[in-house]
UniProtKB/TrEMBL annotation:
SUPFAM superfamilies the record matches: Fe-S cluster assembly (FSCA) domain-like, P-loop containing nucleoside triphosphate hydrolases
Signal sequence interval, chain numbering: none
Name the record gives this protein: Fe-S cluster assembly factor HCF101, chloroplastic
Residues of the Gamma-butyrobetaine hydroxylase-like N-terminal domain: 443-508
Molecular-function GO terms, alphabetical: ATP binding; iron-sulfur cluster binding; metal ion binding
GO cellular component: chloroplast stroma
Cofactor names: [4Fe-4S] cluster
Record's subcellular location: Plastid, Chloroplast stroma
Pfam families referenced in this protein's UniProt entry, alphabetically: FeS_assembly_P, GBBH-like_N, ParA
Cited CDD domains: Mrp_NBP35
Record keywords, A-Z: ATP-binding, Chloroplast, Iron, Iron-sulfur, Metal-binding, Nucleotide-binding, Plastid, Transit peptide
Similarity-based family: Belongs to the Mrp/NBP35 ATP-binding proteins family.
The MIP18 family-like domain, residue ranges: 81-153
Organism: Solanum stoloniferum
Length: 530
């Protein structure tokens, strides 16, 4: 089945464009064609997806077309479009797209007579490491317009909300990103990394919480010093109110007034689930989870109950640490949780003008190379870092200008950037293009992009409603689904699938792996200039 037939010539004439837009009407088609020829591309927008069909044109065609457009009252480039064109020069380095296409520009107000321009840049996170650069550059490019005398730029961030669908517990519905800090081995400094990362993100301007998921040996009560060291309950809502220290919200079994737990695995999983999902976290940009060591029931429960955005892996230079860490990385890979960074702790110390590696070298780089994790950060052996963990004040708070703090600042920037990329990839991975009446798929971490017929996707549902669980017999018949069916809504479901709502009320879970195996439509051709 063909989605769009490629023309025999790479040149798209005005007549071809008008005939390809039968619903637009001649005037609208002419206007669209004129605006696109001025920039050299024809842009068809559908559900926030922008398709560029490059084409060439002749001077005589453009001249006669411009005259016709002018006679129909099409005005020249407006002041608003001039401002947006100027702002489109600013490229977000994480997305590789200009800030106008990213949707960052909000509340644009232009008074051409007074020469005043005001707008708001709404970034994906208040912890954006280049927000000052965005603000400065936006002022500069708009002020360069000849008629502009005054520019007013305000900065803001998108409200905290998860990008994943599903019935999330109330406490998790206003958390943008959930970061797991894991090692799968005790004693490597995982809690130290989790706490200092959290306070680094808070220092960058984000709203942050820490969840200590180690019930058997909670570390958080030792590493921070909140005034209120006992978790409180909201009797009416039957929810937990987290304690706070220096603006970061904290929840740990150690704050429950019962010390360390002595209980079996299933009970521990239930305690962790209750502590995490019934807490009134409020609006958070990042919730850092200090994962317990291992890859058992507790870890799997956390990964399956909570929509993890990403994971940070902590290791030490020894080969033994690498073996355990590798198990954790494979667990996250199976659960479709991307690992964005590796922190190699206790990797060296300096003395007598030399650098020593008491535990050997290479565990961190081996994790990076073997599993393709893009970022590696080294933490030295420093008495101050160890002492801060016992004193109740994180090192990044005690010495914000020190060597350790600089490393955590680099780690914080990495986490912010990688989470933004993941959110952008997941939110746009699967969408419905109404102009082509096809489902567009671009799986995260893949350059492959393809289209599927909606009826094909619906007919390939593998749930119990469509396939008998015991016999494997197909209950949903081909003729049960009309060829012209269209999805009503497509929502991300974790990092592995989407949830599609159909007109008959059915909610289909479609994993990326399954979508990649379906019969595809012919891809939309990219028309190149003649």
């Amino acid at each position: 089945m063909t989605l769009l037939q490629a023309p025999s010539s790479p040149t798209l004439t005005f007549h071809q464009y008008c005939t390809s837009q039968p619903k637009a009407g001649l005037y609208v088609a002419e206007k669209s064609f004129l605006q696109s020829t001025l920039s050299g591309s024809c842009f068809l927008s559908s559900q926030r997806q922008v398709k560029a069909l490059n084409f060439s044109y002749t001077c005589s065609r453009l001249s006669s077309f411009t005259a016709k457009a002018a006679s129909n009252g099409v005005s020249g480039q407006t002041a608003e479009s001039e401002v947006l064109k100027a702002l489109s020069q600013i490229i977000d380095p994480d997305f590789g797209t200009d800030i106008v296409s990213c949707g960052f520009v909000k509340d644009l107000l232009v008074d051409e007579n007074l020469g005043e321009v005001s707008f708001r840049l709404e970034l994906t996170t208040p912890a954006c490491p280049i927000k000052d650069m965005f603000e400065q550059k936006a002022n500069e490019v708009v002020a360069e317009l000849p008629w502009v005398k005054k520019v007013n730029v305000t900065m803001s961030a998108q409200p905290a909300k998860p990008i994943y669908a599903g019935q999330l517990p109330a406490g998790l519905q206003t958390i943008s990103n959930i970061i797991a800090v894991s090692s799968c081995k005790g004693g490597v400094g995982k809690s130290t990394v989790a706490v200092n990362l959290a306070y680094t993100l808070a220092d960058m301007g984000a709203r942050v919480g820490i969840f200590d998921a180690d019930v058997y040996g909670p570390s958080l009560p030792t590493m921070v010093s909140p005034e209120n060291r006992i978790l409180e309950m909201n009797a009416e809502k039957r929810t937990i109110i987290p304690t706070e220290y220096m603006g970061v919200k904290l929840v740990s079994f150690g704050f429950a007034g019962q010390g360390r737990a002595i209980m079996r695995g299933p009970m521990v999983s239930g305690v962790i689930n209750q502590l995490l999902t019934t807490t009134e976290w409020g609006e958070l940009d990042y919730l850092v989870i200090d994962m317990p060591p291992g890859t058992g029931d507790i870890q799997l429960t956390l990964c399956q109950v909570v929509p993890l955005t990403a994971a940070v892996i902590v290791t030490t230079p020894q080969k033994l640490a690498f073996i355990d860490v590798a198990k954790g990385v494979r667990m996250f890979s199976k659960l479709k949780v991307p690992c964005v960074a590796v922190v190699e702790n206790m990797c060296h110390f300096d003395a007598d003008g030399k650098r020593y590696y008491p535990f050997g070298r290479g565990s961190g780089s081996q994790v990076v190379q073997q599993f393709g994790i893009p970022h590696l950060f080294d933490l030295p052996i420093q008495p101050a870092l160890s002492a801060s963990g016992d004193s109740g004040m994180p090192e990044v708070v005690a010495d914000p200008q020190g060597e350790v703090s600089r490393t955590f600042q680099e780690l914080g920037v990495c986490v912010v950037q990688q989470c933004a990329k993941i959110r952008q990839q997941v939110s746009t991975a699967v969408s419905y293009d109404r102009s082509f009446k096809a489902i567009k798929v671009k799986v995260p971490d893949s350059d492959e992009e393809f289209y599927l017929h909606p009826a094909t996707v619906r007919r390939n549902d593998r749930s119990a409603q469509s396939v008998d669980e015991w016999s494997g017999e197909q209950k949903l018949q081909y003729s049960d689904i009309p060829d012209d069916i269209e999805p009503e809504e497509i929502r991300p479901l974790g990092n592995y699938a989407v949830e599609i709502t159909w007109p008959d009320g059915f909610n289909q879970i479609a994993p990326y792996d399954q979508l990649q195996m379906m019969e595809r439509l012919v891809e939309v051709p990219q028309l190149t200039p003649a």
